[in-house]
Amino acid sequence: MIRFTLPMRLLLAILPAAGLMLGGMILVTVHLSQQVVERFINDYGRDTAQREAQAISAGIRGEITIAEGAARMVSALAATREREGQAPTLADRRQITEYLRQAAALHPEAVGVWFYAEPDALGPDNAARDTKDMQVGMAGTGRYALYATSQEGTVLLQSPPDDFTTQDYYARAARSHRLTILPPYIFPIQGSPTVLVSHAMPAMVGDRLIGVAGIDLDQRDRAQVYEGRHPFGAPIAIINTAGVWGYHPDPSRLGSAATFGDGPDYQFSIGERVFIDQAQPYSLERTRSDGSRLRRFTWPVDLIPGEGRRLLVMDVPIDRLARPFAGIRTAILMAGVLCALLLTGLMILAVRLIVAKPLHRLQGGVERLNQGDYGQSLPDQDCPDVIGDLARGLEDFRLTLVERDRLRLDLQRMAACIAVAHDAIFMMNREYSVLYANGQALGLLGVMEADTLLGRRISQFVTPETAAALAGLRHQISDSLARRGMWTGVVDNWTTLSGHRVEAVEFTASNDPGGDILVVARDVSERDRAERERQVLQRQILQQDKLETVGRLAGGVAHDFNNLLGAMLGYAEFLVADLPAESPARSYAERIVAVGARAKDLVRQILGFARTDAGVQEVVAARAIVEDAQVVLRSTVPATTRLTCMTEEGLPPLRVNQTQMMQVLMNLVINAHDARREDTGDISIRLNRGPLPFTFPADWTVQEILPTADGPHVVLEVTDQGTGLSPDHLARMFEPFFTTKGQDKGTGLGLANVSSIIKAHGGGLAVASRLDTGTVIRITLPCLSGLGSNAREPTVGDDGARHPGEGAPATAAVKPRGLKVLVVDDTDAMGELLQEGLSRRGHSVTVCNNPQEALALLVDKSQGYHALVTDQTMPGMTGLSLIHAAKGPNPGLICVLCTGHSAEVDEATARAGGADAFFLKPLSVKTLLDRLDALHSARV
């Protein structure tokens, strides 16, 4: 018995099916080829008929434009005259005549071009009758009507027949008020009957008919155009919806009615009558009387857009139509047979590819698995048959082998990563015995070998103190792992038995899926130190921002208060000067001056705190700061308080404002004196070279107010043994208006001024205190490393003036009288005070509170001002700007600048800006007068 393979059995089963399929495809292909050729023939014929109809329509529309042009011209002339309120003139008629003459000359193919006007439509006809000129009116009537013909290049003008208005070529267009194309008709042309086709176009102005323009065409000339079109070698014909031939290759049928009936003797079948009546395109097959077959194609010929009244008729022999498509049927038949044969071959090939090849590939995959090569996936897994099931089963087995190798590799990589991790990693069981530890974990416990640690607890390798801390956390760890599956905590002062110490260790414990505990330990000492430093810096920044905000507020308030205080002191000085010495009122005025002086000092303190710069600085020996202040300080504190000053030898020089440094020491010593616990006490001042440690016992509170800058510096410390300060008070002691003294015993500005001055000098400030023990305030000042200890170098702007407003002593001279002074101040009180004070000295004073108005007075030389006294801060213009503008036209003008507070203007800035003198408010009127007189005397 013969045994066939599976592919051979499949092939024997599909051969009969392949034969049936091949025969069916051949039959389908034959039928399909006939339909395709028929479709091509029909579409080709309809497209050809459409092109011919469109070409004929385009040619006829060109003829229609002649009549349309004449009608539009007449309508435009009549409309223009109507808008002007005038009737058309004879000149307008001659213009129309000229248009008709030119149209006839340009279109010799036209039999004639004409226009026939309604009575009096182009002006009164009687006026034209008298001229006897046929170009403007018909003989005997004067009515404008003209017919232009072209004969052998010459245009002839003549009047149309008298019955012109009753004919269709005029009456139909006049009634319809739209373009009209007449069917062919016979009309005598120069005595010869001619078949004409006319196009008539009414000329309208609104709804009023002016006349009708037209063009007549010889149907024989048009027939020559039609005869030149023979698509597929077949003539064309034109029939209208009335069934009348507009054109026919047989001249005898031109203008006659077509015949309708069944059979080859009739021109159209009964069924075609519906399409002709509606001018709808169609195609059908006809058989001639000689038995030949024709295909008739029709298409609308639109002489007027949308008219739809004519059809082009084209009868083409079938053999001529089918000639271009003769090879298509054979090509389709051959393609069908080839496809059937190809499909049969593909079916046979598919048996081999679908069955034989997949089985061979699976066999190769099994051999690779036997050899241990299972890195490549098996093919044919997406097959939805038995072969696919076999492939998927083998692939599952291969993936199991691959997963085993991947897990082994992952375990090796994980172990390598854990071994080099920066964190200490432990794996423990539920009794906290170590199951695994990486290298960092061994180092954290001070263990050299892992075997020493495995199976034991980590508490066995740390000091008793650290073990006690771990034991205290054990209950918390167990509870957190049970509730959340994780615990995080920090153990401080971690110390092992081997002596290894870590400031802080952070532990993170979590449950392992296998039931063990994973612990990760990390040294967070640096992080904790950085966090503490960040908090200290944040407090310092907040403190500085608070001081700057309050400083700006205090400076603004002090500026306004200076003006009021200056006015009060000035008028009080007037009272002291005017009242006799024995008058009680004079003593009251003197008390007002004394109280005002105290207020003046308070304002100076506020302005000093608000000032953000260090004023005029000079290079001085460091020891001079303490030595110059000793005399004043010893007279400030009582004899019961012992003041000790100690200065290190060989200190480098400093660049400081010595007056401000005196103020710093005064404020610190006074506060130290007020902090005494009894009637006696010790205050010590030390000046040393830095850096020096600033460390205290743990029960002392240390606060850094301003950080110490890098570089060489000296250290100034003021120490007392007073009541000390609590931590809350220590953090606020340098805030403006904060004081721990009783009511009326302090303003809270002294230490705030200290902070502002030290900050402006680029120095550092720190304080340490303990209740009932005392306080230490440390100041660090940057020093100059290139100069000797006794150096003293004046700075730019140091003109020897000790206080603002005090210039060089005036030379002895007679005080002038009668100066003309302009006072500019936006505060009325200050202006009135200066006017009164200067007037009392005999000067002529003008007060102006607007700097722009003051500048206008100064520019006017006829005013003759000798001096200008101006405030610095004013709306619209500063005092320095006013001085600069005023000295341009008047260089000899004496200018005095006054200001209550300005961080941008000092003595040096004022002089550089052109001011001859500079005063800080509140100013003394007498000092101002003396300085003014001295400046004037120096210029005389």
Automatic annotation (TrEMBL):
Residues 520-547 form a coiled coil. It catalyses: ATP + protein L-histidine = ADP + protein N-phospho-L-histidine. SUPFAM superfamilies: ATPase domain of HSP90 chaperone/DNA topoisomerase II/histidine kinase, CheY-like, HAMP domain-like, Homodimeric domain of signal transducing histidine kinase, PYP-like sensor domain (PAS domain). One of its GO terms (molecular function) is phosphorelay sensor kinase activity. The modification 4-aspartylphosphate is found at D871. It is found in: Membrane. Its EC number is 2.7.13.3. Residues 556-785 form the Histidine kinase domain. InterPro entries: CheY-like_superfamily (IPR011006), HAMP_dom (IPR003660), HATPase_C_sf (IPR036890), HATPase_dom (IPR003594), His_kinase_dom (IPR005467), HisK_dim/P_dom (IPR003661), HisK_dim/P_sf (IPR036097), PAS (IPR000014). This is histidine kinase. It comes from Nitrospirillum iridis.
